[in-house]
Amino acid sequence: MKKISFLVLIILSLSCSKNDPCEGADCLPALTIIGKGTIACLIDGKGFQPGGSQFAGPTQQAFYQFLDGGYYFGLSANHRNSKTSINIALRNQEIEEGEVYQLNVDKEDSNFGESVYNLSYYQTNQIHTGEIYFVKFDDINGIVSGTFWFDAINEDGDIVEVREGRFDMKYY
């Protein structure tokens, strides 16, 4: 009888493994504000985090630079094995902590979100928009943290939904 009980406990512990697939936002790292080097989101409900070979360059990065009289911010994540990526750009926009910025590509100097997903390129526009919110913007230590979401459309009219986005990165 003890052998059977022990066997049942082993089977139960294996079935509750930490390797069980998670779903939705449970798959994503928590939002932190310490420059931890994380970025993740859901793309059409599936968890996305950068990964793959670093040989061709970093799989994630953030920058904030003053160029041609304005500030430019970029955030990118790339999973090379699945050929999936997201990019967010704020053009000619000075960032302030606690502010929300629209992603809508309505003119040349506007902000946008884009994704490569299922071998197709998607981008925000005036109808399919999104937002990025800066929870922390520390210009002294180069830390940027926040959340984002956006809807983007491809040339065939298909829409991708990017949700539950979060990032905590050092920028250059």
TrEMBL record:
Among PROSITE patterns, the record links this protein to: PROKAR_LIPOPROTEIN
Query: What domain of life does the UniProt record list for this protein's source?
Result: Bacteria
Please give the name of this protein.
Lipoprotein
